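Quarterly update, task 2.4: heme C-bound model.
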Amino acid sequence: MNRLLCAALAALWLSAPAMAQDLALLERGRYLVEVTGACGNCHTPMGPQGPLPGRHLAGGTVFDEPPFRAVASNITPDPETGIGRWTDAQIARAIREGIRPDGTLIGPPMPFAFYRGLSDRDIAAMVAYLRTVPALRNVAERSVYRIQLPPAYGPPVASVAPPADNPVARGAYLAGAVAHCMECHTPMQGGHADMTRLGAGGMEFRGPWGVSVARNITPHANGLGGWTDTEIVRAVTEGISRDGRQLAPPMAFWAYRNMTQQDLADLVAYLRSIPSLP
Ligand code: HEC
Ligand code: HEC
């Protein structure tokens, strides 16, 4: 065999494990962005049937609230109008710390308080995957904040370890850092999530569906107390309440329906473990 071919074959053989690793990272990133994280719930413009086809992650969704008129950014790899020119570290910092490469702060409702907790491997996976989605040209309008944004959302995030390997810890990570269930299901008090009322519901969401109110998802009788595990999983993945009523947006059922059995079991274990609140 000629020397060049030998070298090429050796290189191929040596890089096979690395390639398998890259694929596992990409697949994890896809799952985080598309399923549990449901970034498209905000970053893909919505039509009456859900996310608009051909506009995946291209931004433009408007959140018109008293404190702000926020417009979701284009997070596709388009170099001009998306994040194509950002380095991996810059994208990671934008997601976990809410700071753009030019140093400006990204505003709400992008859920930074939760994304700060994303583990190093998961943030790397998200960044790797975001680089592979189709680049779409779309200039998202600028957001207008009528409230004073803080100078930062906290100290720089150096390193975050994955959650402890037990169902409640994994479920807490999923409901917090990744799917930010608790962002919607915890009421606000003075502009911040009232953590003494974690999961108690009450926040209102206005949209083409009218007004929906986040439910109590604590183990209280007013919440998921009397529900079976199967009923909880059905609500999360199909958007059907215990009594059979179809739940309204903005909960991302359309994405959560592809969650793994393991993640759903962990979520249920966590929801059953939080303090019971009326
Ligand atoms: C609840 C809605 C919401 C969710 C969920 C959300 N985002 Fe955002 N995101 C926004 C809004 C709104 C902005 C723009 C804020 C501004 O203009 O300051 C933004 C900005 C960004 C930016 C900055 C882009 C730029 O050009 O400045 C990145 C990167 C980003 N989001 C990534 C993500 C990823 C990745 C996910 C999923 C893990 C995600 N976002 C989930 C609402 C959301
Ligand atoms: C963007 C906001 C948002 C996010 C994120 C969200 N939810 Fe919800 N959720 C809602 C709203 C609003 C309702 C009530 C809808 C209605 O009444 O039509 C709801 C309903 C529910 C219900 C049904 C309760 C009942 O009484 O019918 C469950 C269970 C639930 N959410 C759990 C979760 C879990 C677990 C997650 C994370 C995987 C999550 N939610 C993420 C907004 C959200």
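Highlight for this quarter: The first helix runs from residue 3 to 36.
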